[in-house]
Amino acid sequence: MRSSTLRGLVPGIELAADRPAARQQHLHDTALGLLQYTPNVAFFEAQSIVLEVSASLDLFKGPRTLLRRIRLTLQSMGVNARSGMAPTALGAWILASQTSSAQRHCLGLHTLRRRLDLFPPQALPAARPYAAWLDGIGCRSLSQLRGLPRAGLQQRSSPLLVQELDAAYGASAYGFNWFQAPDVFSQRIDLIERLEHSHAVLAFSRRLIEQLCGWLQARHRATQVLEFLLHHEKGRHARPPTPMVLRLSEKAWLPEDFLSVLQEQVQALSLGAAVIAITLSVNTTTARPAASAGLFPEPAQWMRQEHRLLDLLRARLGGDRVLHAQPAADYRPEHANLWGPMGAATAKPPLGLPPRLTLHSRPFWLLPRPVALATANNRPIHDNEPLRLVQGPERLESGWWNASGHDQRDYFIAQDRHGARYWLYRQRENQHSGWFLHGLFG
Description:
The chain has 442 residues and is an alpha+beta fold. Helices cover 32% and strands 25% of the residues. The longest helix has 22 residues, at 198-219.
C-alpha cells in the first residue's frame, strides 16, 4: 500500500523504515528453530521457508502431529506464519498462499494436482513476468498452463517457468540450497521496547531456547550450561549486562528440558534496570546420547526424570539449599554423613580408613549434634522418661589423629514405653562422659 492509503485506513499509525537486514535475520532465526524437525530447511522467495520432512514423519508420529508441533514452535518464537503441506515443496508453497485454511494441506499427489489446477499462472514466481502475455492468450489457470505446448512455452517464456511447473506437480525435483547451522551458537534479540518485568524476559528467552534446540538437533549435540546476558541501557546511564546462567544436571537438547528450569530461574530474577537486548551463548557441548532401542524403559530414563526434578528445585530454592550425600570413610557418624550442594565435589575419604561394614542397625535420622541426656539409676532419661536398652553395645574408637581428641563410645539402641527407639552412646574414659542421644529410628 501507499503510505497515504494506509494512513487513511488507520489514522495515527506510526510507519517505520523498512530494514531488509532485520527481515533477513528474522528469517534466519526462524529457520534455526525449525531445524528441530528436519535438517533440510531452505529459503524460498522473500519470506518463505521450505521444510523437507519425509524422513521425520515416523519420528513425530505422522504429518498432522508434526505440523501441530511446528506451529507451537513458531508461536513460541513469536512468528506469525501461514503453513502449507503437500507432497511437493512448490505445491505446498502455492497452497499456503490462499486464504482458505481448509485447502492448504493435502497428503496425496492426486489431490494436490486437482487443487493446483484452479490457481492462476501467477502463483508460480517464474510466471509473473509473463502475466500479460499469458492473459492475452487466454491462459488463466495452472491447468491451462500445463496444456500449452512445452516447446513453445519454454521458447516464449523461460526454462525456469517449465521447471517450476513440473516441480509443483511432482513431475520433477526442485533444487534448494539447504540452510546450514552456524558452527557456534550465540544469538541476540534486540528488543523494540524496554523490558522491566521478568515474565517479559521469559517470553523472549523462549525464542532463543527454540533456536538453540534447532541448532543442537542439527549438530547432534547436547549441553548442560546456558549463558544468558541481559543488556541494559547504553550511554550516560550505562551499566554492565546482567548474567543469568542456567545449569542442568544432565545433557539436554529439547525445549521442555530447558524451559521448565528457565521459568523457575526467571521468576526469582530481580531486574536492576530495564532490558533492551538478550543474548544466549553456549560454549560447551557434548555428543548427544544415543536413543534406546529397547522395549522397556531403562534406568537412565528414570534418572533423567529425577535430574529434571532436582534442576527445578535448584532453580526455585537456590543451589545451596538442595543438598546431596557426600559420605566420607570415617567411623564417627557425624563425620561420615556429610552433605553438600548439588554439583559440588564429593568429599574424599581420609587415607587408611576404608568404609566401615557393619551389621548393626542404623537410625534414619541422625541429629546434627549429639544431645546430652540426664540419668537416673544409671539409666538415660529422654523427655522425662527412662529408656530401656534393647541392643548393644557397639564399640567405636576413633579420631585420635584429630585435634578434637580420641572418641571412645559404646552405642546402644534404647526404647521407651511407647515403643519409640533411639540411638544412644555412652562416652568412656572422657571428661565429658555420660549418655548422649545421637539418632532417631523411624
